[in-house]
Here is the input.
Amino acid sequence: MGEDELVYADQIDGKKFRLVLIFDNYSERDYKNDFQEFVDYQKKLSLTGEKGETDFRFWENKISLTTDVDKKDFKFWEIKEFVPPFDFFKKKSVDYLGKAVASILRANPKIIVSDELNLEIKVIRIKERSYYIESHDDLMTPEYACYSGAGIWFMQAIAAPLFYFNRVDFSYITRFFLHELQHFADNMKGYLQFDSKYADKIKRFSKKKSAYCLNYLYTTIFNLREEGYPDFVMRKEVGKMEINMEGVREYNRNLELLIKLRLKKDAEELFEKKIGWENMTASGEYACGRVMCLTIAMYVAKIKLKPCKISVGKEVFSGHDFPELDKIMSTNKIIYVSDFSNDVLQNAAALIEPSLGFHFIKLYEEACNYLGISEKNRVMTRDRFVFLQRKAMDFAAKERAKRLKKSGFVNLG
Ligand SMILES: [Zn+2]
Here is the structure.
């Protein structure tokens, strides 16, 4: 045991669950710096939040400001007495996160893949909220889920709302961790091994073809399942899920841009900002992968003749068969789907979880066929992927020929 850690312990379905927060690498000075950064961020009332909805902003959060605190008056945390003490921060972080994770595990007991689960989080200072959590996959076992987590996340999610408003937004915490724990379960069940085995092959291949974009093209195909499914699991807790057709189309437009980027630097930048984890909006791979999972759930509902609900603008459709679905997708930006029965969600999970990479795309295509969703309204298909891949290689080959010629060499094809 280290010097400074706090433990929350619980029993879930007769299994042991422990959350350990380790503060050995997080000094009071780090805490103060994080607090200052938190305050600076919260004072920028007009900030648009380029990272999307995952950043917690008090001024637009649903936490009702019950007392004397004016919603727009944030001066109060500049007063010394109104800084949550370090011990308060540590104690409340472990208590509330422990309770939140225990409730996730009770609702999703399959996440515990052994007789016990120890969730260990090393709290560290991560500047400029560049990320909130990082998993240490090489240290993970079915009994140990190991992460580094940003102190500032605990500040904004737990300590500050509790200290100032005497309330915590539990759903914000659970949604965040449900996503991470779904990765853990996927990983421990061996579902992601295929992806990681594939990654090296792809890297070599894209280098050989001198088209770095291929690397990211494959990555996003895998991420549609790898990130989309945890996102789906997390959102289904909220109830209503959206299909954002504009987002789906933009995702595809960005892939068209990606395949013209030969250099690592350019491909990486476009991928991270527009396609991958920095884009938490409807056009990112998380949201698009989630739409695919949602489509698979609708497919299961139709097979099982179990109703769900679709709402478009003010119109609401109930049932298990939606003959107009494709037309609705062609003519509307946002479609909401809700009211799946539990066994539909469970069956969808059983189909999605073991389906990786191209298997996931195939499953999604089956769902689209059954629901009558046409090619142009699909997030991705295997044919489209092959087409993009070929275009990327052709483009890279032409560029290479140009470079050869420019340097005085002959292109032999
Ligand atoms: Zn993730």
